[in-house]
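Our preliminary data section would be incomplete without showing what the modeling component actually yields. Below, a chain of 336 amino acids is followed by its predicted structure, encoded as tokens that our downstream tools consume directly.
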Amino acid sequence: MRSWLAAIMMTGAMAAPAAAAPPSQGRGWLGEEMPLPLAVRTPQDLAVKTVAERQYLIFNLLAGGKLAWDNGDFATAATKWDALLRIHPLDPEIEKTIRPLAHEARARVGTTGTPAVAAAPEPAAPAPAEPAAPRAATTTVSGTVAGGGAQGPGGAVIWLTRAAGETPHPAPARNKVISQRGKTFIPRVLAVTVGTRVVFRNDDPIFHNIFSLSKPNEFDTGLYKQGASYTETFKHAGAVQLLCNIHASMLGFVYVVDSPYYAQADAGGAFTIKGVPPGEYQVHVWHEAAAHPTVDKLAVGAEGMRNLSLRVGGEKRPPQFLPDKSGKPRQAQLGY
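Predicted structure:
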């Protein structure tokens, strides 16, 4: 605070008044709108935007008053600094510096013959940041998934999209890890949201080289040993098949959803999706044994939805030979 405040207050002392640009000119600063628009998608975004706008108003009034002072417009300087001093709480250093200047600016208005109100009145200073508006009521959707062929429904991924309008963009999930242990992926299927970083950790006393040919989420960890890890960010929705270039028997999946309303079925097919606003939706179900995800309509009332019964196909057979990095099929290596 002290460094930039000192820089602003030194501007007039180091340059002649004629060199100071009026507040309406320059690089976009000191306008009514902040130069950097801030998106508001979550309550946290709203809280940050409220604080940023308050700080921008303080800077606007502080610097705008100084520029007006340097140009001999003491009425505008007094108006801006009076508005600044009405903001509470205000940094004590700002108040200590500006209060005597505002008093002198008001005194100079009478000696220059400038009208007491030369500038348009500033909007009332905002109150300290208030808590974000309460969230709209949400509810829970739960039920079971059947099907999945011989594998059963465990690992099925269920997600909701709005039937009309745009589905909110989800926040990336946190702390998502897929271990390589006993030459298997644990978990075999992991559901994540778009933008999630997944850590692939080698817990085996041997090397692994995990890769995927699933475009546009393809990746290659390279060779890495026990205790090492590799992080991949999944930016596109859809199924990502996981393979190992050393161990042809290893198979797993990451399923990436572009919705905040999702869940993964347990071994018995049970699932729960929390935080769902009431409304009309499409419910989607993906399973590695299904040729295609299933889609159905769903109306969620204020009381939520319980005992929802969903079904997913199981007609897709596991591949006899898994591909290598070039996409060519290879036989599982016995004992390795």
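Helices lie at 2-14, 43-70, 74-85, 92-112. Residues 176-257 form a domain with the Immunoglobulin-like fold (CATH 2.60.40.420). Preliminary results of this kind motivate Aim 1 of the renewal.
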